[in-house]
């Protein structure tokens, strides 16, 4: 039998090998299942905060993984600001799935790494689902900062240094919501700022809040935008700061202010549902008053009458398109109670106003004003002195600065003063304090006593500094606040006596009101300080070295002068705009510009000066009266 053998086809082993490898490669790449979702994160904010994908991780957690550890976001190969993660999300089409981003290493982040705000939601679709990029609301741990530091403008160009930074502040809500519940003002001890969100926020006057947000400016107005706000309690809303229109500006932007003696000049009260701008003036300047319909002021009847004088309270806001953004400041009342008719006050008692720029009142040792002056009276040496004054600061010195209230400088030993009452703000933590200082003439050794309580703008304070050769003491409103051991003699000084400022690179000018400055060549007891602080010291006392009530000013040989009512006759010259106003701790509002009236100059004794013009109360020019102090 013959067999026909069929030839078998030879197998191509290399081809089989490569085919198997291709299949294995396909199997190794997971195809997107019907319920897979790609989560995308826009990481601009976190990267700006210092997020490093080699050190830090963000995961996706939610209903689909029982809010446990989830997939890690990885940077996209083509976009360094886009991070993505793929996760299986089981469920039925149309299901609402809750989820969030969360940072690992939770101790590095606010809220233990969880996103701030409500859970996110997605509507599940079967098949491949790509979500739009979302900015994770996750922040590295932030320290609470004073608002003044957040708004810092180091070069004075009216543009904030920290634009775009994420910061955290705490403060008190001082306004209702402006612009349809998206806009509040928050104030702390140092400053105030607008907090803006594109969606609704609900807070009440006096809420204490913690805010995390991005520093921004809108038409000049400083803001925190895209904020996360936490209500952490409630406190009484701060009292308004009392300033004149002329002081309005960047320093007071966002603050709760009160401006007195404003005449309503023009502008119509808004109809329901409308805004309007009213014009008010104080005789020296004018201000726009913005009535915002979102405050509901538009729903009340017009409480104002053209030509009448009012006290207004409100928020200083700003809207400008100028470059630099240094104008457009306006006042925004909040409630009907923010409009009050001005009170009529006795203008018989005055104080001195200083603008904080260059105003001062002084006399030089070798150039006395009064021929009967005794300059040696304020040239106190030895170990006994008391210096007293009433002060009402309108603004406080910045960090590492001080301003002079009253004292005797050393011309050749800047910035030392033989003795002085000051406001000092040492260091970088913004804590202005009253200080009484003594210097013995050696640059390395002086002594001072510094107050502890917070200073408030627009508040009258009585200060008394004493030295007895053993202790320097500072009394505030009759209460001992500080004492420091010191034993040296007081240096005699060399350049006169100054109130309100001194031309020094380290000692600035006071902004506000000063009244009843008194110098004694004795160490007064606390009881004596309390008894005499309302004025009228014994002018016949041989220990009284100077008493300047700052109630009257006169023209003497072309100089504007205020009298020393002690027996030392060291009258002082008002310089560079310093002026008297009829506001004092013993009376109150309003401030009045001086006008001329001819009377005899009674302050100069035994000298015939006939028909010297005297300055007395006249037209209202501004409205920076301070709150009347409490009497003992």
Question: How would you characterize this protein structure?
Answer:
The chain has 632 residues and is mainly beta. Helix content is 5%, strand content 38%. The chain is elongated, with a radius of gyration of 35 Å. The N and C termini lie far apart (142 Å). Mean pLDDT is 83; it is low at 1-11, 16-20, 22-33 and 588-632.
Q: What oligomerization state is this entry in? A: single chain
Distance between the termini: 142 Å
Low-confidence spans: 1-11, 16-20, 22-33, 588-632
CATH topology of the largest domain: Jelly Rolls
CATH class of the largest domain: Mainly Beta
The total of beta strands comes to 39
Quick check: average pLDDT? Answer: 83
Name the overall outline.
elongated
Q: Provide the structure class.
A: mainly beta
Assign a percent range to the helix content.
under 10%
The major pleated sheet works out as: 12 strands, mixed
Number of domains: 4
Return the CATH architecture of the largest domain. Answer: Sandwich
Helix count? 4
Report the radius of gyration as a whole number of Å.
35 Å
Strand % is 35-45%
Q: Which descriptors apply to this entry?
A:
eight-stranded antiparallel β-sheet; twelve-stranded mixed β-sheet; 4 helices; elongated; mainly beta; Immunoglobulin-like; 39 strands; OB fold (Dihydrolipoamide Acetyltransferase, E2P); 4 domains; disordered C terminus; 632 residues; single chain; disordered N terminus
């Amino acid at each position: 039998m013959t067999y026909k053998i069929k030839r078998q086809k030879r197998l191509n082993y290399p081809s089989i090998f490569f085919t198997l490898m291709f299949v294995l490669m396909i199997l190794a790449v997971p195809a997107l299942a019907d319920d897979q979702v790609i989560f995308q994160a826009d990481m601009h904010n976190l990267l700006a905060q210092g997020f490093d994908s080699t050190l830090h991780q963000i995961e996706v957690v939610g209903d689909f993984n029982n809010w446990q550890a989830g997939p890690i976001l990885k940077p996209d190969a083509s976009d360094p600001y886009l991070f993505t993660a793929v996760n299986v999300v089981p469920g039925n089409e149309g299901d609402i799935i809750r989820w969030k981003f969360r940072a690992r290493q939770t101790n590095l982040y606010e809220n233990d790494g969880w996103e701030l705000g409500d859970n996110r939601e997605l509507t599940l679709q079967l098949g491949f689902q790509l979500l739009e990029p979302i900015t994770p609301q996750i922040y590295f741990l932030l320290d609470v900062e004073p608002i003044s530091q957040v708004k810092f403008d180091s070069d004075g160009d009216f543009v904030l240094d920290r634009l775009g930074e994420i910061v955290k502040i705490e403060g008190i809500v001082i306004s209702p919501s402006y612009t349809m519940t998206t806009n509040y003002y928050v104030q702390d001890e140092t400053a105030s700022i607008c907090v803006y969100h594109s969606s609704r926020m609900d807070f009440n006057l006096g809420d204490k809040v913690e805010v995390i947000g991005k520093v921004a400016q809108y038409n000049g107005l400083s803001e925190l935008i895209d904020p996360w706000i936490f209500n952490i309690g409630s406190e009484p809303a701060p009292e308004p700061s009392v300033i004149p229109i002329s002081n309005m500006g960047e320093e007071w932007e966002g603050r709760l202010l009160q401006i007195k003696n404003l005449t309503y000049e023009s502008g119509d009260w808004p109809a329901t549902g409308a805004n309007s701008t009213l014009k008010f003036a104080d005789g020296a300047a004018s201000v726009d008053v913005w009535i915002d319909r979102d405050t509901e002021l538009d729903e009340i009847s017009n409480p104002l009458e053209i030509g009448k004088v009012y006290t207004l309270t409100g928020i200083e806001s700003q809207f400008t398109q100028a470059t630099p953004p240094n104008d457009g400041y306006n006042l925004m009342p909040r409630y009907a109670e923010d409009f009050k008719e001005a009170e009529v006050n006795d203008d018989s008692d005055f104080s001195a106003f200083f603008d904080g720029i260059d105003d001062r009142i002084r006399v030089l040792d070798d150039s006395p004003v009064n021929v009967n002056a005794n300059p040696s009276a304020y040239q106190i040496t030895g170990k006994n002195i008391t210096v007293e004054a009433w002060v009402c600061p309108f603004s406080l010195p910045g960090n590492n600065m001080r301003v002079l209230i009253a004292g005797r400088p050393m011309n050749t030993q800047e910035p030392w003063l033989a003795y002085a009452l000051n406001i000092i703000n040492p260091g970088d933590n913004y804590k202005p304090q009253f200080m009484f200082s003594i210097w013995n003439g050696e640059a390395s050794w002086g002594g001072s006593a510094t107050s502890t309580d917070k200073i408030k703008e627009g508040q009258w304070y009585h200060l008394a500094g004493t030295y007895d050769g053993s202790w320097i003491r500072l009394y505030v409103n009759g209460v001992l606040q500080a004492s420091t051991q010191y034993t040296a003699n007081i240096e005699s000084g060399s350049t006169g006596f100054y109130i309100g400022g001194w031309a020094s690179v380290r000692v600035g000018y006071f902004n506000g009101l000063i009244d009843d400055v008194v110098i004694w060549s004795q160490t007064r007891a606390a009881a004596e300080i309390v008894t005499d602080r309302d004025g009228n010291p014994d002018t016949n006392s041989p220990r009284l070295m100077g008493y300047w009530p700052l109630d009257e000013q006169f023209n003497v040989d072309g100089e504007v002068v205020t009298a020393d009512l002690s027996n030392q006759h060291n009258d002082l010259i008002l310089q560079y705009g310093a002026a008297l106003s009829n506001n004092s701790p013993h009376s109150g509002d309003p401030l009045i510009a001086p006008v001329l009236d001819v009377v005899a100059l009674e302050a100069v004794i035994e000298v015939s000066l006939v028909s010297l013009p005297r300055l007395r109360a006249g037209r209202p020019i501004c409205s920076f009266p301070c709150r009347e102090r409490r009497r003992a």
